[in-house]
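FAQ
Q: What does a multi-component entry look like?
A: The components come first, one per line:
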Amino acid sequence: MENDLYSDRALDLLKGIYPSTGHAHVVGITGPPGVGKSTLIGSIVPLLMEEGKKVAVIAIDASSPFSKGSILGNRIRMQESLTKHSVYMRSLSTRGLNGGLSFSALGTVKILDAAGYDTIILETVGAGQSDLDIMRLAGTVTVILAPGLGDEIQAIKAGLMEIAHIFAVNKSDRDGAFQAIKDVQDILMTSMQGDWKIPVVGTSTVTGEGLRELVAQMERHASFVPSVKDRGSVLKNELSLIVESELMKMFYRSMENDRGVTDIVGEVSDGSMDPFTGSRRIISAISEKINSSATTLP
Ligand SMILES: Nc1nc2c(ncn2[C@@H]2O[C@H](COP(=O)(O)OP(=O)(O)O)[C@@H](O)[C@H]2O)c(=O)[nH]1
Ligand SMILES: [Mg+2]
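Then the predicted structure of the entire assembly, as tokens:
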């Protein structure tokens, strides 16, 4: 699927396995770089496995200049735990995906879900729109912060607030942890997420503090999720992601082999047409193609 993300084959595969999906608890772990997300995942995976859960980890690198080499870093941080417990881990990066990272993540989640994984952990660096899109695939979103980064408030304001179900202030073995937890709690006071009261858990992968509580909160949220409303919004997000990626696929294909579209691209490139008009024309060209092929995709 990753190798040929925009192919009909990938789509058929996902469609075929879809009836076997919907059982996994998808846990998103996000937050600024360096707060200890990967290390924390390495620490909570054994706790989940103790409970008999089959666990998979997907580490996503939106390859911003800030996350260079993070895939390797993620692996190293989780390595010990991974090899000891034979956890399935996969890294995804934007490289060569033409913006299809979210769709690739969706597909990977579905495949692992169908394969019978109980808990699928998605790690992203908490920055950028594609990260937020990916987090929308998770039933339970956990935002990790750490004391003394000064990132707390910023991260919360950067859109994480609306999607977080659980906050963890990691490195609570460090000075300033108490204050950081209090800061997050203060901000949360002013907002509620329906009936779910967002917990703030202090954790440390060094002392082990709060790790069990974090896992317990994730599971508490999992039993909270199946409320039709939340499930509906996850499905809606999946749908828009798939539509988005299908449209993208049509666009990239038409750039390659649709004469009309390549002409428009040429006119925009040489400055004889403005990009707004160009974009409208490309969209009309694609819609015409959809209409004429009716059931099969172009
Ligand atoms: N003091 C302390 N350091 C930690 C803790 N958890 C992780 N770290 C360290 O923080 C650094 C970044 O960890 P990493 O898991 O790669 O962060 P990520 O970028 O959020 O995935 C590493 O040097 C870890 O050893 C913790 O609970 N306490
Ligand atoms: Mg990491």
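Q: Is there any commentary attached?
A: Sometimes. For this entry: The mean pLDDT is 82.
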